[in-house]
Amino acid sequence: MAKRVGAKGARSANGARGAKSTKASAAKSAGKYVYLFGARTDGNGGMKPLLGGKGANLAEMCRIGLPVPPGFTITTEVCTYYYAHKRSYPLALRSQMEAGLAAIERQTRKKFGDLRNPLLVSVRSGARDSMPGMMDTILNLGLNDQTVEALARKTGNARFAWDCYRRFVQMYGDVVLGLQKGAGEDHDPFETVIEGLKHERYHQDIEDTKLTVDDLKELVARFKALVKERVRREFPASPWDQLMGAVGAVFGSWMNDRAIVYRRKYNIPTEWGTAVNVQAMVYGNTGETSGSGVAFTRNPANGTKEFYGEFLINAQGEDVVAGVRTPEPVVQLKNQLPKAYAELERIRQTLEKHFKDVQDFEFTIEDGVVYMLQTRNGKRTAMAALKFSIDMYKEKLIDWKTAVMRNPADQFEQLLAPVFDVADVARAKAIATGLPAGPGAASGQIYLNADRAVSASEKGQPVLLVRLETSPEDLRGMIAAEGILTARGGVSSHAALVARQMGKVCICGAAAVEVDYATRTVNVDGRRFTEGDWMSIDGTAGKVYAGRVKTAPSEIVAGLIHNDQAARKTEKFRNFQQLMTWCDEATRMDVRTNADTPEQTANAIAFGASGIGLCRTEHMFFEGDRIDAMREMILAETLEERKAALDKLLPYQREDFAGIFRALKGHPATIRFLDPPLHEFLPQTEEQQSDLAKKLGVPVSRIHSRVAQLHEFNPMLGFRGCRLGIGYPEISAMQARAVFEAAAMVQKEGIKVHPEIMIPLVGFKMELDLQLEVVHQAARDVQAEQKVKLNYMVGTMIEIPRGALTADEIAQSAEFFSFGTNDLTQTALGMSRDDSGSFLPQYAELEIVKKNPFATIDTVGVGQLVETAVTRGRATRKDLKLGICGEHGGDPSSIHFFEKVGLDYVSCSPYRVPVARLAAAQAALSTRTGA
Ligand code: ADP
Ligand code: MG
Ligand code: MG
User: Fold this and answer.
1) Taking the complete model, does pTM exceed 0.85, yes or no?
2) Cα gap 177→184, rounded to integer Å
3) pLDDT tens for residues 710-763?
4) Pocket test residue of 374, 376, 379, 471 for ligand 1, highest count of atoms within 8 A of CB
5) pLDDT, tens digit, 9 for 90 and up, residues 832-876
């Protein structure tokens, strides 16, 4: 696989015009590879797969009359072609690009490479989904030693012309020629040259804008020398060579490490490819009436309806994002360039009215005139997404179904994340403030570089990544961290962007925080922090605290679980409730919970669960003295001994079930009978074993021999599940009795009870039948003894392939199926989940598996078993109840699959219930509309 594209990739790209590629591309030469935008616009906003997100929206903005510099988009098909044909292009591309460039020349009245009025272009990547920071843009392309003079003459602004040239050589050197910092280098080599010159000539770090024409000329010369020295080639002077090199670099960057890491995290298929946009330059660096900025139509951190963003006067785009100079809030433009500000306000309204969603856009002001360079749906925190969706519904921009769809289900859990404890935070000392870029509270031990952050987090430490600013190289560290704190950079800095997307707690631009990479220390407020020291950040308020601050539950958790009245009055809580009401309206599937205790059950019910989908009874055997009775049962040598031990366990189980039934308030509970192999209950160390021997008054040798006897080579496939109940029917009899006695008891208290007894690991109908007999017998006995009528069901877990394949037979006996997708995945893939850590990461890297099959259901393989079981099961029993209780029940994309195959409910852990309700509603809405 190709790694980072450097000089080599770019060179072969240029070579692509040679004879070799002619044959390969002939077949496709009839295709349309280039789409214009500007006076004539070929594409539109709906063409993201072909034109990429940036290209499609540039076209769309042209269509609605927004001021966009003209240009053209090279399609993603060319990218696919490029990789399928040894990094070469379709034959027809060149002539189509020439036509595209001619169109730009006509509209701008400039000419590419001209010596009177040269046209400069930007070359910009644009994948289908925006990939912040992944692809590099090249500005001011078309400059060389001659055209730079022409530009200076034409504009009468030599400083501007040389500033453009300086930027161009730097960007091109980096992105296309691959001149980046080497292994031992801490800084970008170009930046080192700039710093060197500043110190040589001014003895200090002056701002870039203070550099003179002569300084800039000198920089260009030194940059070129650096290029020659490091990459051993002349800087290309021909604008066309520059252009083709840049296009190749954009395509090449699709396969660079950063892009690959990002795609893996967000599950973006490699096949999608990127488009390339070539666009006439507009200049934000001509002086004090020019500038460049990034803005959101509303606040993407907390959702407030306010114009949000930032700009830099006398700057080109990258400056704002790079965090080199700290930009000013966009509302400041009102004073500095009022006309441009009014125009931006108008554009802000137009964008929201047209796209009906919050937009994140990039603009440049050239001599007071505003140009639009990009717009896309703004990335947002879960908190902002919630507020946007409710507000835009109230403003009648969207309907309630769209509002539901606007909340990303996989981020939704952020809303339940803790905030700082009010009392504890009042005691804590705020040592700095910065921009609140990612809401929430995070405490952690500080680390100043991504690698060390990752390894600390692997050791189980909560980590706070503290940096001057972040760049895409830090991504792994950011993923590992609880929170991110940067000293520089604004709301559109890399750190803020990534935090917004990943839902990380983040503060940016906390200028008082002095980060010293060399000594690995942070100085702030007269105190010194070393790596490993604790700090806390409040990303909602933008405050940094020394030490560890305690956290408290979010308003939603406080309101629902603790019935905290103040929390229930907050906007966040009310918006959440509104959204959940809509979800209930939309959803077809129910959401149940996996819970083993009354407390977990009560929490899940408060979160809106409609019952228990999986109650694992084995957890009940570990608490307190119960484990002793359990062990006694396992060690029993006769049926009588075993029954005596089981009699001791019965009251415990009955109590547990009664508690759960009460907490359920009439909702159903699926109760799974004993599942794990028995040896899991026995003590493993010598010491524990002799303790147990004493306690039970048996010789320790008996314990040894029982442990040895129970030893298995593959416990996951061993004596477990219904095999236990078949081997020892008295265990199932005890469990059934406990369930029914508890049911009778709670029912007499006036609470409805619906137990659903679930037999695990069934592969043969006969297995289920044997257990059914035991269960029904217990039910008859208890009903007679207690003089009650109980409402119960018996069903099975479908978790081994034979069970799925013979579902028609099994459904003759089972009243319900619950898919145990954890074991079903293990058995279908023949992969032990607990051992998959040694090979699965590589499988993900090689894309053998697109997603972790234990987190997101493998629809192609395991999914077939589910579908088969659904079809065959329902063919036998029309009203067969179907649910899923594996880990996948809380995973949004798996939930979409379960909706498609028509399950009745999903079940997940209590704190995932809101996520699952949202995902189930979205799945129902999109399945209905065929999306
Ligand atoms: P990214 O995908 O990283 O956002 P872009 O292609 O949007 O990269 O380019 C980054 C910035 O470069 C833009 O925000 C804009 O300020 C500047 N830029 C790109 N193209 C042009 C152009 N034709 N004229 C002026 N500035 C441009
Ligand atoms: Mg951009
Ligand atoms: Mg199982």
Assistant:
1) no
2) 19
3) 899 998 999 999 999 999 999 999 999 999 999 999 999 999 999 999 999 999
4) 374
5) 988 888 899 899 888 899 889 999 999 999 999 999 999 999 999
Q: Can you tell me the mean pLDDT for 800-808? A: 98
* Both tokens assigned to 155: 């504009």
H or E, element range at 803: helix 801-805
Mean pLDDT of 140-148: 97
Statement: residue 804 has pLDDT above 90? yes
Q: How far is CA 906 from CA 611, 663, 746, 821, 863, in A?
A: 10, 20, 26, 11, 15
pLDDT of residue 11: 30
Ligand 3 centroid to Cα of residue 15, in Å, is 57
Length of the chain: 931
Residues 6+ apart with CB under 8 A from 305: 298, 299, 391
Secondary structure of residue 712 in the 3-state scheme = coil
How far is the centre of ligand 2, averaged over its atoms, from the C-alpha of 322 (Å)?
Answer: 12
Phi-psi map region of 688: left, alpha, beta (phi>0 left; psi -120 to 50 alpha): alpha
- Tell me the mean pLDDT in the region 88-93: 95
Per-residue pLDDT for 2 more than 50? no
Q: Supply the pLDDT for residue 466.
A: 97
Nearest residue (by CA) to ligand 1, atom 3, is 133
Measured by CA distance, the residue closest to atom 9 of ligand 1 is 137
User: Is residue 354 annotated as a catalytic residue, yes or no?
Assistant: no
Minimal-distance CA residue to ligand 1 atom 13 = 317
The average confidence (pLDDT) of the chain is 91
HEC letters along 611-675: CEEEEEHHHHHCCCCHHHHHHHHHHCCCHHHHHHHHHHHHHHHHHHHHHHHHHHCCCEEEEECCC
Cα gap 94→98, rounded to integer Å: 6
Q: 797 C-alpha to center of ligand 3: Å?
A: 8
pLDDT band at 25 (very low <50, low <70, confident <90, very high): very low
For residue 546, what are the β-bridge partners? 535
Active-site entry in 885, 888, 896, 908: 885
Of the listed ligands, the closest to the CA of 321 is 1
Handedness of CA 310, 314, 319, 325 (dihedral sign): negative
Our answer to whether residue 885 is catalytic in this structure is: yes
Ligand 1, pocket residues at CB < 6 Å: 69, 122, 124, 137, 139, 279-282, 292, 316-318, 362, 364, 373-374
The Cα 405–Cα 616 span in angstroms is 33
Kindly calculate the radius of gyration of the chain based on its CA atoms and give it in whole angstroms.
32
121 CA: nearest ligand 1 atom: 23
Question: Which pLDDT does position 29 carry in this prediction?
Answer: 46
Ligand 1 nearest atom to the CA of residue 317, by list position: 16
Question: Which one is catalytic: 79, 494, 888, 908?
Answer: 494
Residue 17 has pLDDT above 60, yes or no: no
Cα–Cα distance measured from residue 166 to residue 179, given in angstroms and rounded to the nearest whole number: 15
Pick the residue whose CA is nearest to atom 15 on ligand 1: 317
Mean pLDDT along residues 37-61: 97
Helix (H) or strand (E) holding 240: helix 239-253
